[in-house]
Amino acid sequence: MNGTTWAILDRAHAALRTAVRGVPDGGWDRPTPCAEWNVTQVFQHAVGDQLGYASSLTGGPGPTENPFTPSGKLTDTPEALLEPALVAAAAAWGTVDASVQEVRVPLPPGTMTAALGVGACALDAAVHAWDMAVATGQPSPLDDELARPLLDVARQIVEPVRAFAFAPALEAEAGGAEKGEAAELLRYLGRRPDWA
Question: Start and end of every Mycothiol-dependent maleylpyruvate isomerase metal-binding domain (predicted)?
């Protein structure tokens, strides 16, 4: 990465775009692995978080509603809401060199290295892409190649925010079919890899 290109963020954003485009008519009210939120609310949360990362880096406008209390009501088409958030996050991170040791982020402790911060932003996009995809019958956008670096990020950032941002980690089930880094990441984030 050269300070303007973050492959992990590009892949996570592509996963989120694909998941949003794949939500079928009538799919926005379906339940998700985030037990208290439907697809619309997960989407709103994901959009708000991307804007939150961009705002932390640039001082520009953040989300218009609290990403942790999504209303479930969209004010525009999903793509019209998603694209500006992803563009803002990518542009903000595009100004940050990989060697930077401290950038502002919307998570405790408020600052991280550039690599960890962009990883946290990517983790948010990728896991919510997975939430939306599995809730609407799409293939998982989270493969082991993407999950591998995100699992490392998760292990560094999740515990201080687990109480309000992630469910308790799940143990692998004996004899369970779900293996690999993607399944391990999902379990660490409190999600069942075989959720349906």
Answer: 9-133
